[in-house]
Each structure stands twice: as C-alpha cells, then as structure tokens.
Amino acid sequence: MTTTSGPTGRAMPENDTPPGGPEVASSPPLLQLRGISKHFGAVEALKYVDLDVPAGQVTALIGDNGAGKSTLIKAIAGIYPPSSGEIFWEGQRVSLHSPRAAEELGIATVYQDLALCDNLDIVQNMYLGHEASKRLTLDEITMELETRRVLTELSVFTVRSVRQLVGSLSGGQRQAIAVARAVMHESKLVIMDEPTAALGVTQTAQVLELITRLASRGIAVLVISHNLNDVFTVADRIAVMYLGTLVECGPIANYDTTRAVELITTGAGARADG
Ligand SMILES: Nc1ncnc2c1ncn2[C@@H]1O[C@H](COP(=O)(O)OP(=O)(O)OP(=O)(O)O)[C@@H](O)[C@H]1O
Ligand SMILES: [Mg+2]
User: Fold this and answer.
1) Does residue 69 line the site of ligand 1, with CB under 6 A?
2) From CA 82, how far away is CA 271, in angstroms rounded?
3) For 31-266, CATH number?
4) What is the model's pTM?
5) Which residue, of 66, 195, 212, 252, has the fewest CB within 10 Å?
6) Domains of the chain, residue spans
7) Is 40 near ligand 1, meaning CB less than 6 Å away?
8) Which protein residues have their CB within 5 A of the ion that is ligand 2?
C-alpha cells in the first residue's frame, strides 16, 4: 500500500502544510501534486489533479489521447506552470515556474526525440546544458570516463563508442543516453513521455529494463505509456487520467488489463479493489 505522508518537520510558512495532515510520518513522497488545474483558454486540460510520486518506484501515467498526461508532466517539468494547485517536493511547497527550476530540484524529463543533439557525440550530449555547473572544469578525458562509468552502471552495453554521434544511434540507444544523462546529473525524478512508442521489441525490452534499474537506484520514475503490456511489466503504481481528471491511482497489483482499459475508456466503473 502507498501512503500519503505528513510534514517533514522542516519549517514551513503557515497554510503551507503539506497534504496528509499534521501527524508525523517517516518521509513524504518525493513529489506531491494537490489540486493541480491547467486551463488553455476555455480548455480545462487538468482538473484538480492529486498525485503522489514516490522515490524508488515506477509510476505509470495512463489515459486516452487528450486525457491530459503530457500537460501534467509539463506542469511538473516547469513548462506549463499550473493555473492553480500546489506542488510539494520532499514535503516542501515549491513553485515550478520554469524548466530550470524543475531541473535544479532534480527533475529530468526525457522526451522521445527532443532531448539530444544528433550532431554531437554521446559524451558531448551527456554534458549539454550543464555548462554552468562545476562539470565545466572537467576535462575531456574525465568526461569520457564519467560517461562510460554511468553507461556501465546502467548496463548500457550496446553503444560501440562514447564518441559516436548521437545521430547514428538507434531509438532505444538514444533513449538510453537520455536516461543516462538524467542519472549522471543526479536527478531524483525521471519523467518519460512515451519512451517506447517508436521502438522495436528488443529496444523496448532494453528501455523497460533501464526504467526498472532507475527505480532500483532509488530514483522516482513517472512514465507515460499507451502500451499496457509495458505498463504491467515495469510499473509499481498506475495513475489513470480521463478528460483532465485523475480518476484512480494505486499499486499495480490492484489492477488488471481489463480494469485499466475500462478506466481509460470510461473513467469509471466498479472498483477492482472494492
Ligand atoms: N498548448 C496547448 N494549447 C491548447 N490546448 C492544449 C495545449 N496542450 C494541450 N492542450 C489540450 O489539453 C488537453 C490534454 O492534452 P494532452 O496533450 O495533455 O493529452 P495527452 O493525454 O498527453 O494525450 P496523448 O495521449 O494524445 O498524447 C487536450 O484537449 C489538448 O487539446
Ligand atoms: Mg501526450
């Protein structure tokens, strides 16, 4: 069972008590969304979404086209700040008003195609966008060693050389590099939007394995997928969205494919767990 935890004991402004009430619990979920809404003009893309994303677990975000999944992860990634609602990170209320703000907390978002630069090699991609950090002082050899170390740690053995241009990699390898990049920069939450959508059977299996490995390292993973086979293979928890509402969220063990499809298509029905 998953639990919603109380405050961490750190000083917080009044009225900013995190969800879960005043009782003290061990530690709150890494990320907690409460009452998140997002409007695009007249379109209500998100309606009062509550979601917990715990560390060390894979949370699968599922739902039909237009349900609001991408909008929700963009709210977490700082791309579409919510119209209303609250976000708690490690029990503290935060404002994710920009992608940089999300990154600084340790939130990495991996998109299918947008994350990498084709004309740069793997090492250069691993350090891209982190020029301002202390990594700048690292020399090429150290960066190369560090890249190899992270890839080995994640058991990514399919790339021939870390000096290969990313444009020459397969979809699955690109996905692996994007994930490795998130790991290298010590992300605490890795968000993936349809990571296996364009991949073949073998590459899909590799990416799913990678997702499992991330979670076993204590990283929280939030993954959007339309593929229920993938979801039931990797997820510890599922969260189902329907027309902008989060209709259910719970341990994967409480669900089967039939129930998941029912929730995705109707947003309701008899509860599987009573
Ligand atoms: N930038 C935007 N401007 C206006 N409406 C938007 C914008 N982004 C999303 N929407 C609307 O918000 C709703 C949710 O879209 P979203 O992309 O989050 O769905 P999704 O669950 O990711 O769907 P899919 O499975 O097709 O990717 C849709 O009705 C969509 O048209
Ligand atoms: Mg989407």
Assistant:
1) yes
2) 29
3) 3.40.50.300
4) 0.83
5) 66
6) 31-266
7) yes
8) 70
